[in-house]
Amino acid sequence: MSASGGTKAIVAALSANLAIAVAKFVAFAFSGSSSMLAEGVHSLADSGNQALLLVGGKKAKREANDEHPFGYGRERYIYAFLVSIVLFSVGGMFALYEGYEKIKHPHEIEHWYWPIGVLVFAIIAESFSFRTAIIESNQTRGALSWTDFIRRAKAPELPVVLLEDFGALVGLVLALCGVGIALATGDGVWDGIGTLCIGILLIVIALVLAAETKSLLLGEGAGAESVAMIREAIVDGDTVTGVIHMRTLHLGPEELLVAAKIAVRHDDTAAEVARAIDAAEARIREAVPIARVIYLEPDIYSEAAAAAGPDPTQTPGGDPHPH
Hints:
Elements lengths: L2 H29 L2 H26 L15 H30 L8 H29 L4 H7 L4 H29 L3 H30 L5 H11 L5 E13 L2 E10 L5 H18 L3 E10 L2 H6 L15
Parallel strand pairs: 2-3
Antiparallel strand pairs: 1-2
Helix pairs in contact: 1-2, 1-4, 1-6, 2-3, 2-6, 2-7, 3-7, 4-6, 6-7, 8-9
Keywords: Membrane, Transmembrane, Transmembrane helix, Transport
InterPro entries: Cation_efflux (IPR002524), Cation_efflux_CTD_sf (IPR036837), Cation_efflux_TM (IPR058533), Cation_efflux_TMD_sf (IPR027469), SLC30A9 (IPR040177)
Subcellular location: Membrane
């Protein structure tokens, strides 16, 4: 995902949510609907979340320094994790509390046209925001399913916006159902039930976001396709005869660290090995442009050393083609 694509989706979602939040709070003031209050807080939390993503993206662009030699790329993961916390605490828990209070102390909805009109407007606005996120995601999603895209994406912004917009649309439908049934039956309990359902939905989405961003914070390696391309780029068949073992780590969504022990011939000179390493680094960056930090350690492959080790892929001089 490009940074510009993610920013476009975030700005679209932020603009929609700010307008929707104002409309929902106005509708709550006139109707007294707890679903509208919960949805208003939801939209306000979503607006704050998108602001957090924008701040994280800006902070991540800071240059590396002595204190942070690998830069600040993971700032984007930290702020995405904060989004899940805000969505859980402010959005989900508040909706659960408000739903419980409305079920315990129900009252009829006044001026029904306010919540109905605002919910229809909100569904239309959220649909445009969701459409923007889908279009931007499709540019990098490839053949992945939506579930796999959310699970495997290294850039957190689009998965966050996608899940937020999806949750917002489902929440609006739940609110519309709750308000509609409350109006049809004259029983305000249904408004509270709709609010409870919104709270449960937001908490589930928050937990999914927390799990995915936690994995990114802990450190994820490159995808299988990128790993295969890097391995192929390292080996030239002449000086570099194989990859003994290799590790990759995302320093940020668009920055990858590659560390590998490579096999060279025993009769190569130091100058030849140095030239081969420089050439291998150039091939890696051409094959996988986000591989910006590369460490290649030469070693002489030895079948005897490989056989002696408990794990050939971990043994210096071990198997250059581990399975």
